[in-house]
Design goal:
The chain has helices at 10-24, 30-53, 56-62, 66-86, 88-91, 97-107, 114-122, 127-156, 164-194, 196-220, 229-256, 261-271, 276-286, 292-332. It is an all-alpha fold. Helix 10 (196-220) runs antiparallel to helix 14 and helix 11 (229-256) crosses helix 14. It is globular and about 65 Å long. The two termini are 38 Å apart.
Length: 336
């Protein structure tokens, strides 16, 4: 087995390098203001390109499986927040209050798009339904996540960061560019589809910019002095517990609801994921004035854990399908 399978991917290395750079050379003063402006522009461009990329035909093709979509959305926007709140007696003692606030924010985020679809495809699941569910989750998250943040954070006992000003910023910075991209899709949609590396570069670049500015501010506020290794270990345990619970519920819940194996795969990979690409920009808007570094740290860690775990699960699902296909071929062969 090649060693490279156990090594982190390029984006993970870039995230680690960005955190190290912010820890050693945090931006401040005029440089911090310039990075803030660059970050806002990159986030707006990101959502514009996502709007231009989203295929209406793919969405319409997958919309008929409404039971699957409701199940995925319930897992994303109901199951996760409930887990975050119900498991508080177990999870909260493992991390600091600010980190647990970030964990609760993580629970309110929409699902990923690209990786959910990719893993569903690898595992031989219902890809058209995955495209519809993941895209709908990402779009609805622009509205639902700020509302859930207000509800979940207030029930946690911390002052809810949501305000009408926050809603206005979400609309201006995320929704309007997305809508503009959808309007422009008829003219630039095919071009965006042919230049997917551009979207990936903007996607990852905007995340790295937000991470750098967020961690720069956090480092200047003494983040690492307040973050001993046992706390980071506790955060790792918290994320593993959340992901494991979501995977178990989506897997066995979909079977109990009578879904096919293909639909089960889609529910597992779309309903257990959380979007770093949406979460980091939203955190920047919703938690202005809060220690943003500790808010986004749980999302960054969860993102890596879910990618590694789902990669293993996708291969296991695919191997199971291939074994069944091989058995079916052997049974159908005439006896000699």
């Amino acid at each position: 087995m090649p060693l490279r399978r156990f090594l982190p991917d390029g984006f993970t290395c870039a995230l680690i390098a960005t955190v190290l750079l912010a820890s050693l050379l945090p931006c401040k003063g005029v440089a911090a203001q310039i990075f803030e402006i660059a970050t806002d522009v990159a986030i707006g461009l990101l959502f514009f390109l996502h709007g231009a990329k989203l295929s209406r035909d793919a969405v319409v093709a997958g919309m008929t499986n409404w039971r699957l979509h409701v199940t995925v959305l319930a897992s994303t926007f109901a199951l996760f927040p409930l887990l975050g709140l119900l498991l508080k007696p177990v999870l909260a003692p493992l991390v600091t209050p600010d980190l647990y606030l970030g964990v609760l924010f993580l629970c309110t985020l929409p699902s990923t798009v690209q990786s959910s679809i990719a893993f569903t495809s690898i595992a031989r699941g219902n890809v058209p339904a995955a495209i519809c569910s993941a895209s709908a989750s990402s779009l609805l998250g622009i509205f639902i996540t700020p509302l859930l943040v207000g509800l979940v954070i207030s029930s946690h006992g911390a002052g809810a960061p949501m305000s009408w000003d926050s809603v206005g910023k979400i609309v201006l910075q995320l929704l309007l560019p997305f809508v503009a991209g959808q309007i422009a899709q008829r003219w630039i949609g095919s071009w965006v589809g042919r230049h997917m590396p551009l979207l990936s570069m903007v996607d990852r670049g905007s995340i790295l910019l937000v991470v750098y500015t967020a961690f720069s501010a956090a480092v200047l506020q003494g983040l690492w002095k307040q973050m001993p290794l046992p706390v980071l270990g506790g955060l790792l345990v918290v994320n593993v517990v959340l992901l494991a619970a979501a995977l178990i519920v989506t897997r066995y819940g979909s079977r109990a609801l009578g879904f096919s194996r293909e639909d089960e795969i889609t529910i597992v990979f779309c309903g257990s994921k959380k979007s770093l690409a949406s979460g980091v920009p939203m955190a920047k808007v919703l938690f202005a004035g809060h220690p943003l570094g500790t808010i986004v740290l749980p999302i960054m860690l969860f993102h890596q854990i879910q990618l590694m775990t789902c990669a293993v699960l996708a291969r296991k699902y695919a191997q199971r399908v291939e074994r069944k296909a091989g058995q079916a071929v052997r049974v159908s062969e005439p006896s000699r």
